[in-house]
Every structure is written in C-alpha cells, then in structure tokens.
Design brief:
The protein is about 5% helix and about 45% strand. The chain is built from 4 helices and 31 strands. The protein has helices at about 5-20, 95-100, 205, 315; strands at about 35, 40-45, 55-60, 65-70, 80-85, 100-105, 105-110, 110-115, 120-130, 135, 140-150, 155-165, 170-175, 185-195, 205-215, 220, 230, 235, 245, 250-255, 265-270, 275-280, 300, 320-325, 335-340, 355, 360-370, 370-385, 385-390, 405-410, 420-430. Strands 1, 3, 5, 7, 11 and 12 form a 6-stranded mixed beta sheet that branches. A hairpin with a 5-residue loop joins strand 11 and strand 12 (about 155-165).
Length: about 425
C-alpha cells in the first residue's frame, strides 16, 4: 500500500475514532448466519416484497433488502446494528468503514410493531438496506450485526448478504453429470465469462468463483479455475469440479390456520400458553421414486388466517411449538441428524439436532416457529479427520429431476484495490 494512502487512512481512522461512537468489536466474530439470543426469532433478510428471494442486491439499489426479526415476550429494548465488509471467503476485510459506506457506523432500529392479539407476545422489528442512515458504496460480501447495549455490547444475531455490480456477462446452464453412475443423482453447472469489456489480467489468481446450491453454504463450491481461456472468454466446463448432489425436493408443511389441519399436520391443540402442532411422522425417501413437488427451495413464508383481512402477518401470526419426527429403525452410528432449511437459518448447530427415541424408533425435535408455510429436510452430518460433511440425500434421496437454484458469485480483486469486488451475480435453475 503506498505510504500516502497509509497516512490518509490512518488520519481518517483516527478522526472517526475520536469523533464517533465505535461499534462492537468484530475482529473475531464468525461471518456466518447465526442467532445468539433466545429472545430473537424469525430473523431473516430478503429483497423487499419478496420473502422467498436470496439476500442479494444490486449496487444500484433497485432491489433493496429488508432485515427483520421478532423479540419474544419482553418489553421492547433498543436494538442497534452495524455492517462490515467481508472477503469472498467470509473473513472481515481490511477496509475501514468510511471506505465502503456512507452514513453512521452504528444505527438504531426504530421501526417496530407489537404483535396483535397473540398468545405469544412479541415485537416485530424491521429495517431496509440502504436507508437514510446508511448506504453501501462497494460491491462484495457484507455481514449485518444486530446487538444491544442492555448488558454491555451483546451480539444477538448476524446475517450475511451480498451486493453485486454486473461488470462481465455470463452465460451457462445446469447439466447432468457426465459419468454414468452420477447421472441419476448429480447436477453440474457449466458457464462462461465474457471479459471482453472488463480487464482481468490474471484470472487464476485475481478471480474467485463461488457456486451455491439454493441457500446451502454448507456444500458451496469455491476456488474453481477456468477449463479454457482465450482473449474473450473464460470457460468453466469441468466434468467434476462444479458438481452437486441433486438431492430431493424439500419437504413442506403449513400451519397458517390453527383451526384446520393442513397436509402433513396430524394434530393441533392449545395447551396454555402455547399452541402445539404435531406433524405426521416422516419416513426416509431414499428408496422412493421421484415425486415432483413445487417447493420453494428451503425458504419459508410467514402467513396466517387468524383474521379476515390479514393485512400484516408479521405482527398478527401466532407462534407455536412444532413437533418433528423421522422414523428410522436404529440410530445412525457415525453421524448426527439435523432439521435443515431457512427455518433453522441453514445452521448445523445443537439447537437443530434431533434426538433418537429408542421406544418410538424415531428422531424427534421440537422447534418454536411462527405461523406460515415452511420447507425443510433432514440432513446427516458426519465428521472425519476434523472435516465436517453434510449429506442431503441420506434420508431424502437424490434425483436428477430435482429442481434446484444455483447461485453464481464471481469476485475479482484487482491488484490496485484492497477488496474482493463482486463483478457478477447470476441465478441459474436446473429446469431452465
């Protein structure tokens, strides 16, 4: 870094340190989606007016994001947030706040509404990105950090999102894997980058590729190099380097009506102070034939039919305890079973691990969920040589017909710049 720039950055950083309130320390904070407090529920981030969208927005701001969450059964407190810029592989970048943002480093969330006529009392908070207090100037990966000052500065939740600027054109499609034994279970993404109007001097070192199936960070593929390079195109058409287990369509259930049992709901009863929703015991699908289901690729939608108008389900929907069961003849000896999907934040943590009941011969779990329509699946997680692996097909099966989204992120770090720029975001679907 040139000496003049170092002096400039130091001077500006010192000014901000002396003249503004520094947000919480983020040096050792994992850049992942996670909820750290039991009073925070239904935390999510998506495009405005599109609950099923991915947390990705254009740098030009034509599709703003909305971050929202519920504070359960307590008097509303003051919630604050800050946003940090991250590298392509989700580490805090070396950028100072003023380099990637305009506005205040620490902001309070002031938009909230108390729940309406619900047994479980909660307050719904929301905010938009960008807003009048904060705008983001650079593309790349970002981490939103929610925290309070009730007992010091306590981190409550973190959420990832991405901002892109399409500086290169991309074309491609999802294909079947070429090997005969893979064709029935695997899908692969082939694509090419037209770099004619954008200079990439060293594609092998300066370009970083990340491909994610649906919203599943646990099996994302990164650091793939081109299979062919010419003056106009970077071609990524490998037989095995961008290949994913197709898995199966997500399971689903709905309890937006607490008076009527919907599909896969066996029983609903109110035991003060909560509703209890029992789902029918699920069975493994590994040996079942493929069945086409219109899922929403792991997402969920908040909805309720408690009131005729239902104008604001975010504050009118009830919370309930939902019982999940997966029939299985004996516990898996070499792994753990998790409920997986947006309803668990795609986290593989103890909070979402099922316990095996020897008498019932099933894996069971209770989750506290808000009324709506949910996608989920059962995932087997194993550890070998300190490497954790998640298997999405062990209980669900795997079929080439499965409908999957594939998110392609193309990052470029120019030698003259100090951050990973997201120069293209493209969403592919296995049926297009």
């Amino acid at each position: 870094m040139p000496l003049i720039r170092q002096i400039f950055l130091f001077t500006v950083a010192l000014f901000f340190t002396l003249n503004s309130l520094k947000a919480i320390n983020t040096d050792t904070l994992p850049c992942v989606d996670r909820i750290y407090s039991k009073m925070i529920k239904t935390a999510r981030i998506h495009q405005q007016d599109w609950e099923q969208s991915y947390p990705v927005m254009s740098i030009y701001g034509d599709n703003p994001l909305v971050f929202s969450f519920d504070q359960l059964e307590a008097q509303p407190i003051d919630f604050y947030y800050t946003i940090i810029h991250c590298t392509y592989d989700w580490q805090p970048s070396n950028l100072m706040f003023f380099e990637y943002a305009e506005g205040f480093e620490e902001n309070e969330i002031k938009d909230y509404q108390d729940s309406y006529s619900t047994f479980v009392q909660y307050t719904h908070f929301s905010m938009q990105i960008p807003n009048r207090d904060l705008e983001l100037k650079l593309s790349g990966n970002y981490l939103l950090i929610l925290y309070s000052k009730e007992d010091g500065e306590t981190i409550l939740c973190t959420k990832r999102f991405m901002i892109y600027e399409n500086l290169v054109d991309v074309s491609g499609r999802v294909n079947e894997a070429p090997e005969s034994d893979y064709r029935k279970k695997f899908q692969k993404l082939d694509f090419r980058i037209n770099r004619k109007s954008y200079n990439i001097s060293n594609p092998h070192d300066d370009l970083k590729i990340v491909v994610m199936q649906n919203s599943q960070w646990d099996n994302a593929i990164s650091n793939v190099v081109p299979s062919f390079i010419d003056n106009e195109f970077l071609v990524y058409e490998w037989d095995d380097k961008i290949t994913f287990n197709s898995a199966n369509e997500y399971r689903y259930f709905s309890f937006n009506n607490l008076e009527i049992y919907s599909e896969y709901v066996e029983n609903i009863e109110f035991r003060k102070p909560y509703y209890y929703v029992k789902l029918y015991s699920a069975k493994p699908k590994f040996f079942d034939p493929y069945s086409s289901i219109e899922d929403i690729n792991g997402h969920y939608v908040i909805s309720t039919k408690r009131f005729a108008n239902n104008d604001y389900p975010e504050a009118e929907a009830e919370y309930a305890i939902v019982e999940f069961s997966l029939d299985f003849p004996s516990p898996v000896s070499n792994g753990d079973v998790y409920i997986y999907g947006d309803l668990t934040g795609y986290q593989l943590t103890d909070e979402y691990k099922l316990q095996y009941d020897l008498e019932k011969r099933s894996y069971d779990k209770l989750l506290f969920l808000k009324q709506g329509y949910y996608n989920y699946r059962y995932v087997l997680v194993t550890e070998e040589n300190s490497v954790i692996k998640s298997d999405h097909s062990y209980f669900e099966g795997s079929y080439r017909e499965t409908e999957n989204d594939y998110q392609l992120f193309i990052y470029h770090r120019d030698p003259s710049e100090s951050y990973d720029k997201l120069i293209n975001y493209t969403l592919f679907n296995s049926r297009n």
